[in-house]
Design brief:
With 84 residues, this protein is mostly helical. The chain contains 2 helices and no strands. The protein starts with 17 loop residues before the first helix and ends with a helix.
Length: 84
Amino acid sequence: MIATCHTQPLPKLPKRYAPVLFALIMSMMLSGLLSFVITGINSGLDAGFIARWLRAYGLSWGIAFPLVTLIAPLVRRLVERITA
């Protein structure tokens, strides 16, 4: 017999937080992936790679989060104008 776990769903945030949550998640994912790839290309995947990547990630996310927060509304409006 397979045991099932009856967990309650995670509580949801109010919709008013959606733009900030979008910017947070998007900036974390994008800056993490890009800094990983660029750090690997520029310095190689050696023993110090993770430390260099985490430093680059922290720096890039600190820039990306405010930029995504500011730019996302403009991009949404642009997309609305050029799509049917």
